[in-house]
Amino acid sequence: MPVPFQRVYLESAGFFMPGEPVSNEEMDAYIAPINRMSDRIKRRILAENGIRQRYYGIDTEGRTVHGNAQMAAGAIRQCLQQGGAEISRVSLLASGSSGGDALMPGFANMIQGELAAPPMETLSVHGVCAASVGAIQAAAQGIELGTHRAALAVASEMPSRLFKRSRFAARGYDCDFDAHFLRWMLSDGAGALLLSGGASALAGQPGVRLRLKWIHHRSFSGDYPVCMQLGLSEDRSRGHLDFASWGEAEAAGALSLRQDIRLLPHLFDVGIHEYAGLVRDGWLDPARVNHFLCHYSSEKFIPVVDGLMQKAGLAIPRERWWSNLAWRGNTGAASIMIMLAEFLQGRTLKPGEQIFCYVPESGRFTAAYLLFEVEEAGGAAAAVPAPAVVAPVEAAADVIAPPHDPAAAPERLQALLTELASIWHDYRSRVWRTPLVRQIRERRFALPDYLNWMENWVPQVREGSKWMREGAASLAAPYQSLAALIGVHAGEEQNDFMILVDDYRKAGGTVADIDTLRRNPGGEALNAYLHGLAARPNPIGLLGAIYIIEGTGQRIVPALLPLIKAGLQLPPDVFRFLEYHGHNDENHLTRWLAAVEMVMEIEGEGDAARRIADTARHTAALYLMQFEHVTQSIPR
Prior knowledge:
Layout: E1 3-4, E2 9-16, E3 22-23, H1 37-49, E4 53-54, H2 68-83, E5 92-97, H3 107-115, E6 121-126, H4 131-144, E7 150-157, H5 160-163, H6 177-181, E8 189-196, E9 208-219, E10 228-229, H7 246-251, E11 258-259, H8 264-280, E12 289-294, H9 302-311, E13 321-322, H10 325-328, H11 335-345, E14 354-361, E15 366-376, H12 414-431, H13 435-441, H14 447-473, H15 480-506, H16 521-534, H17 542-568, H18 576-603, H19 606-629
Parallel strand pairs: 5-6, 5-7, 12-13, 12-14
Antiparallel strand pairs: 1-9, 2-8, 2-9, 3-4, 7-8, 9-15, 10-11, 14-15
């Protein structure tokens, strides 16, 4: 749930960009190509990210000109100057960054020292992009609790020191794409915000004040593997402190900043689901958002974010979006503060306008949001009870989470699909934390593990076509069209089984008689539940089971497959079953939607929707149990 604020105001904002802007053509003078791949990767990345210039705190010789704490101090000075404020007013300094100039002490303390600021409370939030939002939230909570009258939140990043060509000398100027990629994406800069509880007018905006209404900050680190990291070896098996020396760590690539770009689509998927929840629960009305400041690392992701919002029926018109990525660059945690400061300095605001900020963090997946509202200065400070700061909107009923694309969903299915979305979101999160998926995520998944998984899965998939045909046979006359549709799906499920068996053989599976394979306890429970349901008259609840099972193939399996392939180094033809599901389950779910429409036409929405949702919930629990038991040995 978001953290609401009733009396926290943004007084002023500032930013600091080191040196002169560096164009795309001038980048090589600062972060020279390191091997033959460099120029090709550079052209590709710059063509996609839309960044035309950026700033570096180093010079062309690689010497540091502006340190990270110095940049943070520069942003604070501009912030205070904008608001005509003195540092002596401030009693809390909260910083956010992926790393300061030193490993210790804390970054906020180093900034305080750089400013020669008077004694105050400090807090250093360590992370990646959303660390800035953590610093803002800490500062705002200090004011809301009455502990502080004025607080500074600052974020500063200086990745350029990691990108110098000399950093890669220990590896013979050889590095993987994940380490190469970020050299052309990230740059240096700092931003700062001055918050207070005095309802002061916003600097440079006569007659208005800017209230921070709420912050929502949620991490999904327990669900997904590391995406962006510094300090781990390339295979993530060792930390930089586990090596005998810094030189050995650098030679092993443990001091290279990396990002697994294959995981990035899931970051926005999770982030938009959280956004949809904020709308559904009445914290935000997209129609009331006048200015949308989204921290995307590349313009390539604009249509991704926009498309997901549109599919959820919660789009913010593109003319309301604002970003300075093209001319300020991607400065990580500092980006949202630099963006907000520059936006406020160049825009005249009016009472009633809302500024909505979204910060996705790829480190280990975090989604953070802030909402500001412009008020007329001079009036009484707002005291709106939380959380219903915005009345729930009708569009919230359109919110559909994975696995189904809601774009084509008929209106009468919206309530059911919304409930299924909630069931799916919880199920997905739990699956990603099972021992099996953790093995895959942490690259501990060897060939015996893969064969064991298939030995669990083969007898389960075999049953799929059986309970589907049994369920189709239990449908009465009004449902004959539905029975035919399920029959087609059952035939495809039987084909899936044959593909899986063939994959098992090609991967080295040694069990000669497939009939001797046994389902694990979760598979047994799921099988008994679905067969029992299929034997009942008109078992339309089975559509809920299909939603979870096919959704797993469409949304979870494709995310795992690249990790499995990377760890096993097997021929492509041993992964046909997993490939097939990733490509075809979307078509299966389109057919599923047509089947649900048939049921609604015959039965109406009430009881049918309840039966489908209940079965989905039970299937999710049992399918999760099957995942939980895969890593345990099964007596044959």
